[in-house]
């Protein structure tokens, strides 16, 4: 076989590997298209280390409550294959964004994770692999949240996190005194147990919510677990809640028929009515 043919075959294999995921990562223009039909638009905000894409109402409601509900996106397309990282972690289909847009509340904000949609000089692949829940990630999300909250005149916040966004939501909550509650959907609440369960590389540069239970146990929490979720099964919640000295405010609900992302959008308005 000629050297030229071998090189062509290598290029072909590399292209096939890059195309393994089903679907293409969403563009900012598509975010706007999805959001604008509901009266929302995106804004890139400076979170210090990272610039983060946010989506919110174009204007503050004339009358709004004291509480802002903040949705934090999942890990996105962090890996192209089991062995190959994505060039950036922008999601194919951002479920947290869709949940936020479906929420009937007027007082809400969506925050994408670092390097999703917006790539900057600090976007090293470690921030969507081993360091995806690093303190710099938590600080950037918290900074954007604080800026928006102050600009719009809110006093307190509720956090909603999907998948890895649940991890970030809990870590943000543990470091603030203005968080009324935390809801999670398919939440990775203990990434050490998650990696052990799936036999994948430990997230060595990441903070873990189980190390902050003393700060979290006074915050009402409701963690939705999919009955058919093989990615983040109920064992992850059990590991998390088992680390609390007093878990009376830490609740879970296993929702039958739900996978890791399937079905949540259709039931979200109903699930939001669950008491905390």
Q: Going across the biggest sheet, name each strand in turn.
A: 1-2-4-3-5-6-7-8
Question: How would a crystallographer describe the biggest sheet?
Answer: 8 strands, mixed
Tell me the domain tally: 1
Structural class: alpha/beta
**Number of helical segments?**
9
Within the CATH hierarchy, at the fold level, what is the topology?
Rossmann fold
Radius of gyration: 19 Å
Strand content: 15-25%
What overall geometry do the principal axes of the alpha carbons give?
A: globular
Overall CATH architecture: 3-Layer(aba) Sandwich
| Gap between N and C termini | 66 Å
The CATH homologous superfamily is termed: Alpha/Beta hydrolase fold, catalytic domain
> What's the pLDDT, averaged over the residues?
90
Uncertain runs: 1-21
Roughly how much helix do the residues carry, as a percent range? 25-40%
Let me know the number of strands: 8
CATH class descriptor name = Alpha Beta
Order of helices and strands: HHEEEHEHEHEHHEHEH
Summarize the structure.
With 276 residues, the protein is of the alpha/beta class. Helices cover 33% and strands 18% of the residues.
Task: Provide an overview of this structure.
The chain has 276 residues and is α/β, with parallel strands linked by helices. The chain has one domain (25-271): 3-Layer(aba) Sandwich (Rossmann fold). Helices cover 33% and strands 18% of the residues. The protein has helices at 3-18, 28-36, 95-102, 135-152, 164-174, 191-198, 213-216, 234-241, 264-271, and strands spanning 40-46, 51-57, 67-72, 108-111, 156-162, 179-185, 221-226, 250-255. An 8-stranded mixed beta sheet has the order 1-2-4-3-5-6-7-8, sandwiched between helices. Helix 8 links the parallel strand 7 and strand 8 (250-255). Helix 3 crosses helix 9 (264-271). The longest helix is centred in the middle third of the chain and has 18 residues, at 135-152.
